[in-house]
TrEMBL record:
It comes from Apaloderma vittatum (Bar-tailed trogon). InterPro entries: HAT (IPR003107), HAT_Syf1_CNRKL1_C (IPR055430), Syf1-like (IPR045075), TPR-like_helical_dom_sf (IPR011990). Residues 70-357, 384-535 form the Pre-mRNA-splicing factor Syf1/CRNKL1-like C-terminal HAT-repeats domain. This is Crooked neck-like protein 1. Residues 668-683 have a biased composition (Acidic residues). Residues 663-683 are annotated as: Disordered. Belongs to the crooked-neck family. The lineage of its organism: Eukaryota, Metazoa, Chordata, Craniata, Vertebrata. SUPFAM superfamilies: TPR-like. It comes from the Eukaryota.
């Protein structure tokens, strides 16, 4: 057999893909076919034949797929075009038997009757449609519109009333209202807003209880000058929604209505009522309108109320975001106290103190406890309610975990309050309870101060004894106890208290206690006992200030031999401090001694003390950082005393080093400028 051979096997320049072939085939399907030739019918037989063929085609299509409603509609419309109305009705009825829920089918059927002016047939179809499918609003709209176009207002109203029985959507109600208004039936229109027993119509504001519908109803009444009715509508709306479902738009509309009626006080009451009950984050528009109203019609007081309300809103947001932000609570309470009544202030205080710190640590309670203090002070000073003040103090003291920590301030404030109420036993009982539960220095001091003011000295002695049993290391308590006995004239008891105090093994400020004891003996002019005290103190410490104070005491005694005793003390101190490592303290002693000799000494003694004064020299020492690395050098001053013979060779070596350094500097300067030496020799 003959085979074809392809000579050029290279790819063609234009490549044709399968996708392109399919796309071109699809496009060619859509190309318009030439219209069929026009057929001219010349007699009745041809017309009947044409009708028969078309009807057979439509019937075949319907028989193939009865559920395709478009085939039925085309069939009926073709019959309608031939003015075969009866046949078209028959086709629509057959189609409705197949699918009576098809909305388009009902619409086409009714439109056919209306186009052919078959009004009763159209009414019959609409009645059947709204009875079969009452929730299809389009049927009702078409039906009412047809009746209104025919001028049958009563029939249209009757259809609307039948529609309203099904409680349709809001737009249906508004269509009915607009229908009544078009025919000037103002008295009938409100019956679609409110319940009308005669018509048995479910009202719009009950079927659709939205705020906007109540507002539309009220504005309808206002528009037709029924102002009293409009106010009643707003009042009924407020009552209907209550406090659980409050909406700012209702109150804004109500306030604007009253503003238009020049009822400014009613406007103000409406705004305040709403602002107090609606959550703050949902009342932004309400607050804005209230501000505008006060700026237009309010006085200075009203504007201030607006500002206060705004600040209250801000504080409410802060404390809601963080209930344990006590600083925000303080600011909020300060604002409320300045402008609100007592009940409101108490409510805010109760909300504030309810936020107890979650951790039982005193640092978390320090700010919180001032809420209770401010609450109690407010009840006592502002509200003048002593009974509530006592309850506040007692509740606070019960709340504090005294086993872990306490607040002496609260106990003392409670006791002072009871004293102001002339109830001394309760005050003593409170302070006694505080000392028994949680003893603290501040509680003892406050209780003792109270008894001192009452001149109950025996109670003060007992309290001091308990205080010193609790804190024997507290030097201030010992001193105050001794001072009390001194004031009462019991010197022996005061001295015994001092002896007990200095005999304690541990003291927080022993130098203050010894000084107070010494001053006490000096006041009693017991100089020998004072000297013994100094000697006993020097056995415990060799501090330079003790020696200087001892010497100044001997000098201030102004008795025979006081100067010699003072000089002797300085000499003893100098001998005792030769071994002291702190050379500054010895220098301080020598300077005090020199000042004494300059005022009371002779030339010999002055010369002697001058010889004892040290020489001040500058030294350098190496510094080290915390990690042990080299941190450089530091200059400091040191004191060299004349009698320190061990340091003499070092001083001599230091002097020789300084002389050598000076000679080196002079020789370097001469070598650096030889011409200068020649010029000087020539000159």
């Amino acid at each position: 057999p003959l085979t074809l051979q392809v000579k050029n096997k290279a790819p063609a320049e234009v490549q044709i893909t399968a996708e392109q072939l399919l796309r071109e085939a699809k496009e060619r399907e859509l190309e318009l076919l030439p219209p069929p030739p026009q057929q001219k019918i010349t007699d009745v037989e041809e017309l009947n034949d044409y009708k028969l063929r078309k009807r057979k085609t439509f019937e075949d299509n319907i028989r193939k797929n009865r559920t395709v409603i478009s085939n039925w509609i085309k069939y009926a419309q073709w019959e309608e075009s031939l003015k075969e109305i009866q046949r078209a009705r028959s086709i629509y009825e057959r189609a409705l038997d197949v699918d009576y829920r098809n909305v388009t089918l009902w619409l086409k059927y009714a439109e056919m009757e209306m186009k052919n002016r078959q009004v009763n047939h159209a009414r019959n179809i609409w009645d059947r449609a709204i009875t079969t499918l009452p929730r299809v609003n389009q049927f009702w709209y078409k039906y009412t519109y047809m009746e209104e176009m025919l001028g049958n207002v009563a029939g249209s109203r009757q259809v609307f009333e039948r529609w309203m029985e099904w409680q349709p959507e809001e737009q249906a109600w508004h269509s009915y209202i607009n229908f009544e208004l078009r025919y000037k039936e103002v008295d009938r229109a409100p019956s679609n807003y409110i319940y009308h027993c005669f018509f048995n119509i479910a009202p719009l504001v009950i079927v659709h209880p939205d705020v906007k519908n109540w507002i539309k109803y009220a504005r309808f009444e206002e528009k037709h000058s029924y102002f009293a009715h409009a106010r009643k509508v707003y009042e009924r709306a407020v009552e209907f929604f209550g406090e659980e479902h409050m909406d700012e738009h209702l109150y804004v509309a109500f306030a604007k209505f009253e503003e238009n009626q020049k009822e400014f006080e009613r406007v103000r009451v409406i705004y305040k009522y709403a602002l107090d009950r609606i959550p703050k984050q949902e009342a932004q528009n309400l607050f804005k309108n209230y501000t505008i109203f006060e700026k237009k019609f309010g006085d200075r007081r009203g504007i201030e109320d607006i500002i206060v309300s705004k600040r209250r809103f801000q504080y409410e947001e802060e404390v809601k975001a963080n209930p344990h932000n006590y600083d925000a609570w303080f600011d909020y309470l300060r604002l409320v106290e300045s402008d609100a009544d007592a009940e409101t202030v108490r409510e805010v205080y109760e909300r504030a103190i309810a936020n107890v710190p979650p951790i039982q640590e005193k640092r978390h309670w320090k700010r919180y406890i001032y809420l209770w203090i401010n609450y109690a002070l407010y009840e006592e000073l502002e509200a003048k309610a002593s009974k509530r003040t006592r309850q506040v103090y007692q509740a606070c003291l019960e709340l504090i975990p005294h086993k872990k920590f306490t607040f002496a301030k609260m106990w003392l404030l409670y006791a002072q309050f009871e004293i102001r109420q002339k109830n001394l036993p309760l005050a003593r009982r409170a302070l006694g309870t505080s000392i028994g539960k949680c003893p603290k220095n501040k509680l003892f001091k406050g209780y003792i101060e109270l008894e001192l003011q009452l001149r109950e000295f025996d109670r003060c002695r007992k309290l001091y004894e308990k205080f010193l049993e609790f804190a024997p290391e507290n030097c201030t308590s010992w001193i105050k106890f001794a001072e009390l006995e001194t004031i009462l004239g019991d010197i022996d008891r005061a001295r015994a208290i001092y002896e007990l105090a200095i005999g304690q093994p541990r003291l927080d400020m022993p130098e203050v206690l010894w000084k107070s004891y010494i001053d006490f003996e000096i006041e009693q002019e017991e100089y020998e006992k004072t000297r013994n005290l100094y000697r006993r103190l020097l056995q415990r410490t060799q501090h330079v200030k003790v020696w200087i104070s001892f010497a100044q005491f001997e000098l201030s005694a102004r008795r025979e031999g006081s100067l010699s005793r003072c000089r002797q003390i300085y000499e003893e101190a100098n001998k005792a401090m030769r071994s002291c490592e702190e050379k500054e303290e010895r220098v301080m002693l020598l300077e005090s001694w020199r000042n004494f000799e300059e005022e009371f000494g002779t030339d010999v003694t002055k010369e002697r003390i001058d010889k004892l004064m040290p020489e001040k020299i500058k030294k350098r020492r190496k510094l080290q950082a915390e990690d042990g690395s080299d941190a450089g050098w530091e200059e400091y001053y040191d004191y060299i005393f004349p009698e320190d013979t061990a340091n003499q060779p070092n001083l001599k070596l230091l002097a020789m080093a300084k002389l050598w350094k000076k000679q080196q500097q002079e020789s370097e300067a001469a070598e650096a400028d030889p011409d200068k030496d020649v010029d000087e020799s020539e000159s």
